[in-house]
Amino acid sequence: MSITLAQAQTIVAAALDHGTAQGYSPLTVAVLDTGGVLVALGRQDGSGNLRPDIAVAKASGVLALGIPNRAIAARAAEAPAFFTSVVALAGGKLLSVPGGVFVRDAGGALLGAVGVTGDVSLNDEAAALAGIAAAGLVAETGSED
């Protein structure tokens, strides 16, 4: 099972709306399926031209390593040379900051991941959480571990 286009579009729209309502800098939101394929992307006016790549990298990294961004950050801090090698192996599609969030259904099945960028990382993550909740799905950030 994977995230649907309708779910992904809901996540993008709600995450962007959340950012606007909170006064965040312009955001970019990427939703990937379980295979790491882009399902939906939204980029607000004024969001930088590298932001789509960053949003995809945040989501792709959690899927590729199977662990939340916070765990990726801890491993990067413990072994920076290894992390640098993994980033190179992943073609740069891996970041160690909040904003990449697993998406699960109510039963816990993995559906994909969301990556948000544009503001400080914790605000990016908050926008992702708002989008995922609006789609009636469950977010996993690693903060609850």
Total count of helical runs of at least 4 residues: 5
Please compute the radius of gyration using only Cα atoms: 14 Å
> Which sequence of strands runs across the widest sheet?
2-1-4-3-5
Domains, number: 1
Can you walk me through this structure?
By secondary structure, the protein is of the alpha+beta class. The chain has one domain (5-140): 2-Layer Sandwich (Beta-Lactamase). It has five helices and five strands. The protein has a five-stranded antiparallel sheet with strand order 2-1-4-3-5. A hairpin with a 4-residue loop joins strand 1 and strand 2 (38-43). Helix 1 (5-22) crosses helix 5 (121-134) and helix 3 (69-78) crosses helix 4. The longest helix is centred in the first third of the chain and has 18 residues, at 5-22. The radius of gyration is 14 Å and the shape is globular.
Please describe the topology of this protein:
Blueprint: H1 5-22, E1 28-33, E2 38-43, H2 51-65, H3 69-78, H4 80-89, E3 100-104, E4 110-117, H5 121-134, E5 138-140
Helix pairs in contact: 1-5, 3-4
Throw out a few tags for this protein.
globular; 145 residues; alpha+beta; single chain; 5-stranded antiparallel beta sheet; 19% strand; 46% helix; Beta-Lactamase; 5 strands
Give a summary of the structure in a few sentences.
The chain is of the alpha+beta class. It has helices spanning 5-22, 51-65, 69-78, 80-89, 121-134; strands at residues 28-33, 38-43, 100-104, 110-117, 138-140. The radius of gyration is 14 Å and the shape is globular.
